[in-house]
Every structure is written in C-alpha cells, then in structure tokens.
What does this fold into?
Amino acid sequence: MDRLDALRAFVAVATQQSFVEAARRLRLSPSAVTRGVAQLEDSLGLMLFHRTTRSVTLTERGRIYLEDCRQILDELDQADRRVRGEDAQPRGELAVAAPILFGRLHILPIVNGLLAEHRDLSVRLSLSDRNVQLAEEGIDVAIRIGELADSSLIALRLGEVTRVLVASPAYLAARGRPAAPAELADHDLITFEGIGPANDWRPGAGRQEPRLSVNSADAALAAAEAGLGITRALSYQVKAGVEAGRLVPVLQAFAPPPIPVSALHPARRVASANVAAFMSAARARFRAHPLTPVEAWMKL
It folds into this structure.
C-alpha cells in the first residue's frame, strides 16, 4: 500500500473506530487496512492507535496527525475534482450530524431531497443528542442547538427554538397547573439527557430530583403524554403533541430566551460542492418550514 492509500486507511479507521468497518468502506480487506496502518506507524516511528480486542482508539499523537491528514486528503480530493471539472456537482460522501429528533423531523427531508437530486452523492447521517466533534469524527456538517463557541467553524443560522415545560391534560387535571416555577416542587418531573442538567429546571424552582430520567426526548415526551409528569423539551420537539392536544405548555411566562439553531462546517470545506448543496437545501427547507418559538404557533 502506498503512502496516500495508507493515509486514507488511517483516516477511515480513526473515523469508524474499527479496522473491519474501515475496510468495508474502502472496499479493501481488513488485513490490507491493518498492514497499511502498520506501515504508516513504522514510517513515523510511533503508535497511532490503542488497540484492544474490543476497541480501537487514537493515541494523543494519532489525534494530532488525524486533523492534518484529513485536511491533506480533502485538499487533494478537491484538486482532483477541480481538474476534472467536477466541482460544480455534488458527488461522493457527505457526512452530516444532527440531534436525534431534530434530524428525523428536519434534516432527513433535506437529505432525501439531495439524494433524489444528485445521483452521485451519498450521505452518512449520524443522529445523536451529544455535540459531535467535526474534525475528530469526520463530519462535514453538524446541526447545533444552542449558542456557538467554536469560532473556527462557519455557521449558518437556521432559526431558533425555545425551552418549554409540558404535561398531559390528564396530569394537569389531576395535579393542578403550576402558576410559578417554585410550584414545580409539588410535581413529578421527567428529564432526559441533552436538554440541560437533570435537576436544574428554572430559576426560583429550586433543585429537585426527577421522578423519571430517560435518555431521549421521544421517551420523555411519551411519558409526559402518558400522564407521568411534567417534562422540559424544546419547542420543535413538542409542537406535534401540543397541536394534537396531547400536551399542554405550562409556565411559558417564565421561559428563558430563545436559543439558536445553526448548521456548522469547517472553514476548509467552504468550497465543497457537497456542503454547498446541503447549505442551499437547508436554507430552502427552513424558509418553507421556519423554526419558531412556542408563542408563534400556539395561543397560551
């Protein structure tokens, strides 16, 4: 395996955290990928991965090397496309990351449209409620809900959402509707990861352990609809349930300010036809289906 192929093997293993999966994506045998990475490590005189029977993780030196390798391969791929006159059309793989429910509701339709329009494009859509690291995880575009801190990334603002407390009509009929945040101490709370500290709800409400903790918005909202308590979510997550009458917002007068939703990509990907196509489709999607706070679509 030549040096360039070895670099591609290294980046694939780092991205997939698996020699077998990297080989599958590169359409090579696992042994060929293993040899390529070993050759690269021999030439550098250092280990790029910690290997166990269950996991493959980058060493500190490997993490440093990975970012430069990705940039080199990106620039080489872009040069190849330019010389072949292919820059104008999306092709190859586009890696997109988004929160689970947001991705299913808003990003999957964008992806579907791109795939229908561009036959030479493939998309790897990763849905997770954690904030992914774009460079480390080989992500071209990530959707971020919240204020942005990393100025090295280029951001397109897609809209804004608000935090909202909701419960089922049956729960509120049985337990009463809280009139102030402090009254949440008398209610059963449902929390899920990704919306903030599990026992930190609203200023003035005090700190209270939840009655139920889950690890997804879908599960928290299902529990709230079943009458198990009050949950805190984001406006786009509860819109369908509120409009259908399965959920009722409470304490909206005490809601914090809206938070932005953005699409991020590394600066070096600004010339990528794949990224440009996604950003254009995202602009069109959110012009037609704007993200709005609860107050914009519900009389409270």
User: Anything to note?
Assistant: The chain has three domains: 3-83, 92-144+267-297, 163-254.
